[in-house]
Amino acid sequence: MNARTAKTPAWRRLDWSLLDEAQRRDALARPRQVRDAAQVDAVRAILADVRTRGDAALRDFTARFDGCELSAFEVTGAEFAAAESEVDATVRDAMRAAIARVEAFHAAQVPAAIRVDTAAGMRCEQVIRPIHRVGLYAPAGSAPLPSTVWMLAVPARLAGCEDIVLATPPRADGRADPLILVAAKLCGVERVLKLGGAQAIAALAYGTASVPRCDKLFGPGNAWVTLAKLDVAADPDGAAIDMPAGPSEVLVIADEVAEPAFVAADLLAQAEHGADSQVLLLSPSPHLLDRVEQAVAAQLDTLPRREIAAAALAHARLIRTRDLAEAIDVSERYAPEHLIVATRDARSLLPRISKAGSVFLGAWSPETLGDYCAGPNHVLPTLGFARAFGGVGVDSFLRRVNVQEASAEGLRTIGGDAAVLARAERLEAHARAVDVRLIALDRLENDGRAGAAAALKKDVAA
User: Are residues 278 and 367 in the same domain?
Assistant: First the structure.
């Protein structure tokens, strides 16, 4: 072991069949999300200050948290050009290829409008409208995430959003990370703001003199960003958000044919995201569990982000299951953000899988591909929200607007049902809104019949 590193954390080894219900709940518990009351108050103070003082507050917080003085927040053309010159051509080419695949996948998600006649004279439609202005957030701390730019900007553009605003934290030199800027340029995002943390969320949600107010906010971030997003989403004057967010996580189901080095690499790839990331391995093979644990220890020692990954492994789980069917049951209970199925016939297990943000089948499908360039989105539900949420897609940037148009025939066809059901709910005004129209129709038809009879009598007399 490298002398500069600490001892590899001991994994928690469990046998699912030997656990009672309470122990099973504990085995699948996520790392506790500590919401420090002081931090919550601090975030709310930032939000309130930005709402009150606008750009002045943003400048103060940028100086305080990012260590730089900014007179303007928007990235200039010269800054975009400088960033492009700093990013290696090989990286730019890989970005273009990744963006093309992400666009190809998301283009297939664009929904079609719906038009259905549900009864004679009753036309119902669903029209699709993009969210007007969206705010995207791309972290740029110890590990800048340019991939987040195309995972958000590509579906926003395909949805037809008229105004796309990207915020990313500035570096100490007052510039945005070059990788973030190149990614933005390749995605056609022209408005990039050098703003980070809770203050960026406040500016995007409420607007300032130089930051436009956005209708919905997207993107991952640290605890300050997450708390700010939750707060503005709960405020009627704030902005909607993409989904609840938490630490990244992966669950691997593997059998005896899985390559231990592959599985270990997948677990470490997720662990290096952050100390609060969670990794779980489920297998009916105790031999495979042993070999993966050994492979993790060997690979961990050479990682540049070893300390972060080691901290995440402190709450990792190696769980022996009775068979693969039980492993899937455990996975469905956990509802992971990422699920890797490293088994002999991985696709045969897919019909039983429903509660996962993104699934990776087979030995040659590392989760890393999904993070960057396979095509599907990498902004996914965590903390078990995969039970009810899916990942970000084109529909996340769209609104479905229902349209109903009844002719006189349509009102006669279904109006009676509506009036009966309204009165069953004791909503008399609802029923009368139908009644008054039916009465008017009767009068029009009676007047029409009387008019027609008078005209016929006049013609006969002539």
Answer: yes
Report phi then psi at 405, rounded to 5.
-135, 115
338 is catalytic: yes
Only one residue has tokens 């290696």, namely: 88
Count of structural domains within the chain: 3
d(CA 261, CA 268): 11
The whole-angstrom separation of Cα 24 and Cα 331 is 12
Domain that holds residue 430: 407-461
> Residue 389, SS3?
coil
268 and 352, same domain (yes or no)? yes
* Whole-angstrom distance, CA of residue 211 vs CA of residue 45: 19
Annotated catalytic residue: which of 106, 273, 315, 338? 338
Q: What is the pLDDT of residues 260-306, one digit of tens each?
A: 999 999 999 999 988 889 999 999 999 999 999 999 999 999 999 99
Query: Is residue 45 domain-resident?
Result: no
272, 293, 337, 367: the catalytic one is 337
pTM over 0.70: yes
Cα Rg for the chain, rounded, in angstroms? Answer: 29
Spatial contact of 191 and 145, defined as CB atoms under 8 Å apart: no
Closest residue by Cα to residue 187 from 160, 152, 140:
152
Q: Are 189 and 272 members of one domain?
A: no
| Model confidence pLDDT, tens digit, residues 38-96 | 999 999 999 999 999 999 999 999 999 999 999 999 999 999 999 999 999 999 999 99
